[in-house]
Write a structure and sequence with these properties.
The complex is a heterodimer. In chain A, helix 8 runs antiparallel to helix 15, helix 9 crosses helix 11 and helix 12 packs across helix 13. Chain A is elongated and about 95 Å long. Chain A is mainly alpha-helical. Chain A has two domains: 240 residues, no CATH class; 128 residues, 3-Layer(aba) Sandwich (abc type-2 transporter like fold). The longest helix of chain A is centred in the middle third of the chain and has 31 residues. Chain B is of the alpha/beta class. Chain B has two domains: 228 residues, Rossmann fold; 67 residues, Alpha-Beta Plaits. Helix content of chain B is 35%, strand content 31%. In chain B, strands 6-7-8-3-9-10 form a six-stranded mixed sheet, with helices on both faces. Chain B has a four-stranded antiparallel sheet with strand order 2-1-4-5. In chain B, helix 9 packs across helix 10. The relative contact order of chain B is 0.14. Classes of the chains: A mainly alpha, B alpha/beta. At the A-B interface, helix 1 and helix 10 of A face helix 3 of B.
Chain lengths: 392, 318
């Protein structure tokens, strides 16, 4: 055991001095996660926000419904920052000053006009420099108008089917049976839902873990090439110590690089990984599974270059299939099912369960079980073949 | 009491066999090395030298045979016997991104060394190998000769009973080669048992107390240089340079006792003679009486190269 630890420490020292190893284990995944979340992060609901103003010149209950329910709901969900102003001129000035992307002006008499079935409008003031915000504002206003029209139509239908004044309860039922005015709301996030930053941080950490996890097994072949494996074999230690040292080195390197990525992405990218104990457990089992798979692959190679090539092919293929670059929910059904043959998918699912602080270790049990099973099977196979890798 | 204590043998091996499919790399090889003795395995590339010492050092699974080092049986998993061996691989086997001191320290710890003993022994080895002033430099900054010295230094660090060197001078410049040979001589004189493989006849002659001539996986002959040369009947090669009637001189010399063969080519007469140094006056007198004027004499005693040629029918460098 002591010899294994010494071999592992020696290899870790060599890795720390090897800039390319640091680049692959820490710098590349962190940089890619940052770039991908920056480029694709705008699609994330939680990170998208617009600034609007609303001038309610009417003050009636329908106008207040728009301001308080529709716009207020958006603000509550964090999609919009709404400023209520007292005039259309004030809203225009805010647009000119680039303080907001668009403004809604509800004219005086709006609520009465709607109730009276007369034509009226919500004016949308748009900034030419914020087209997306302006388009969204127009859609919100149009959606609200459509809902109002639907309510009016239902009531009109009720009235046309009765003689004289309809009973008040019929009117109320007609109004309630229509869809309430459109309200933009975030789809409630269930388990396995990441925010964009955490998704890419986890995706890149898992993707690159499968490259790091190969280091231990490949270093055996490198030692053979450098001639130092013969020295290790000539020394008074068992082959178990040599293999154990390599496994320990690979494990510490994999777990260490994951830990650095998790901490760095939390601090630098505001990624939200969730329960630390659950994350640590997933990392522990995930590294084991990754090492098992890559060790089996390494035992099929004759040289360290060949092993690295095989490992890269396996890492990239399983990484893409396992949903480290895109959420599996966006993949076709067949691909989603196939993905669970990869440890990547289970690891991502586990991290997704914990992400945002909503999940607990209990939620990750399926992932932990699957990863453990993958690790036990593949590491066992690798162990059986590894003696041939060392002694011939 | 272990067997080393009773017979003074640091290494004993017998019946070593190793095959790769139908190819027999080593076939029934056995020899022993005593304390302070340098034993050479002399043979051309592919003769089975490296396979033999790989089995002796426990690097390679043997198909058959026994190895005992310092009285302890050795196999791949035995640690006691391996601790008595210092192994110098043919190629430089050091970690290029570690310093010389870190390399020595790592391997020293694998041999159970530690603390002050490891520190002082590391300093000693760095001093002996001439690397003390570069001890903290990464070894990928070293010259080829420095790497070679460290390669040997690592094997000496734990004070082994048996030093095994696998063709340590291949690809080495003459200066470094001479330094390596001097080191091995010194270690042997200090009482270390040495197993030295080479395909350079002159190295085996210079260093080795006994030599095993190995070819096609088998030891063809074994003994001291004198014993091996005796296999040729102790005949010397003599070359006479001169003028006059060399053909008549050849006829006259051939008639002498102990002269096995005499031939002439251009201005030289080539002889194979038993005990040339004692027969030379008669040879020169016969040549003179036959009308030849001899201006130069060159006597070459049989060497291991000739022995190898006689035993295997091929040259060492074939």
């Amino acid at each position: 055991m002591r010899a294994a630890v010494r071999i592992a420490i020696k290899d870790l020292k060599r890795s720390i001095r090897d800039r390319s190893a640091i680049a692959l284990t820490v710098v590349a995944p962190l940089a890619l996660a940052f770039i991908l979340s920056s480029v694709l992060g705008n699609a994330d609901e939680s990170s998208f926000s617009v600034d609007y103003a609303v001038a309610d010149l009417d003050g009636g209950h329908i106008a207040r419904t728009f301001v308080d329910e529709t716009l207020g709901g958006m603000e509550e969900e964090g999609f919009a920052d709404i400023s209520e102003v007292d005039s259309a001129e004030r809203a225009e000035r805010m647009i000119d000053d680039d303080d907001i992307g668009a403004a809604f002006v509800i004219p005086e008499g709006f609520s009465d006009a709607v109730e009276g079935g007369r034509a009226t409008e919500i004016l949308v003031l748009k900034s030419p420099d914020a087209r997306i915000s302006a388009e969204i504002a127009r859609s919100i206003a149009r959606g609200f108008a459509n809902e109002l029209n639907a309510v009016s139509l239902s009531i009109a239908t009720v009235m046309s089917g009765t003689d004289g004044e309809p009973p008040p309860e019929d009117l109320q039922q007609a109004a309630q049976s229509t869809t309430p005015p459109a309200r933009v709301a975030e789809d409630v996030a269930g388990s396995r839902e990441f925010d964009t930053k955490t998704f890419f941080a986890a995706g890149m950490a898992v993707f690159f873990l499968f490259f790091t996890a190969q280091f231990g097994a490949v270093s055996l072949l490198t030692e053979r090439k450098e001639g130092t494996l013969a020295r290790l074999l000539a020394a008074p230690l068992s082959t178990r110590s040599i293999i154990g040292g390599k496994a320990l080195y690979g494990y510490v390197l994999g777990a260490g690089s994951m830990a650095i990525l998790i901490i760095a992405s939390t601090l630098l990218m505001d990624a939200s990984w969730g329960d630390p104990a659950g994350v640590a457990l997933l990392v522990a089992v995930g590294v084991f599974a990754a090492m098992g798979i890559q060790s089996v692959v390494t035992t099929l190679a004759k040289t360290d270059e060949q092993a690295s090539g095989y490992g890269s092919i396996v890492g990239v293929t399983l990484g893409l299939l396992g949903g480290t670059f895109f959420p599996l929910s966006q993949a076709p059904g067949l691909l989603q099912n196939l993905s669970y043959a990869t440890p990547h998918a289970w690891l991502m699912r586990g991290f997704g369960d914990l992400s945002g602080g909503a999940g607990t270790i209990a939620d990750t049990l399926p992932s932990l079980g699957a990863l453990l099973a993958i690790g036990v099977v593949t590491a066992g196979a690798a162990l059986l073949r590894s003696r041939n890798l060392v002694v011939r | 009491m272990d067997s080393e204590a009773t017979n003074g043998r640091v290494l004993e091996c017998s019946g070593l066999r190793k095959s790769y499919g139908d190819l027999s790399a080593v076939d029934d090889v056995g020899f022993y090395i005593e304390l302070g003795e340098c034993y050479g395995l002399l043979g051309p590339n592919g003769a089975g030298k490296t396979t033999t010492i790989s089995m002796v050092c426990g690097l390679l699974k043997r198909d058959a045979g026994e190895v005992t080092v310092a009285g302890k049986p050795l196999d791949i998993s035995s640690t006691d016997a391996k601790g008595a061996i210092g192994y110098v691989p043919q190629e430089v086997a050091i970690y290029p991104d570690l310093t010389a001191r870190e390399n020595l320290s790592f391997f020293g710890r694998l041999y159970g060394m530690g603390g002050k003993d490891l520190a002082s022994r590391t300093d000693e080895v760095l001093e002996v190998t001439g690397l003390a002033d570069r001890a903290s430099d990464r070894t990928d900054k070293y010259s080829g000769g420095m790497k070679r010295r460290l390669n040997i230094g690592i094997a000496l660090l734990h004070r082994p009973r048996l030093l095994v060197l696998d063709e340590p001078t291949v690809g080495v410049d003459p200066q470094s080669r001479n330094a390596i040979l001097a080191s091995v001589e010194h270690l042997s004189e200090e009482g270390m048992a040495v197993l030295y493989t080479t395909h350079y006849m002159e190295e085996a002659e210079r260093l080795c107390d006994r030599v095993g001539i190995i070819d096609e996986g088998q030891i063809r002959a074994e003994g001291t240089r004198r014993e091996l040369v005796a296999l040729l009947g102790q005949k010397d090669n003599v070359t006479l340079t001169g003028t006059g009637d060399l053909t008549a001189a050849v006829r006259a010399i051939e008639a002498l006792d102990e002269v096995e063969r005499a031939t002439t080519r251009e201005n030289e007469i080539h002889l194979i003679v038993a005990g040339a140094s004692s027969r030379l006056p008669d040879i020169l007198a016969s040549a003179a009486s036959a009308g030849a004027s001899i201006t130069g004499v060159d006597v070459v005693e049989p060497d291991l190269e000739a022995v190898f040629l006689r035993l295997t029918g091929k040259a060492l460098r074939d």
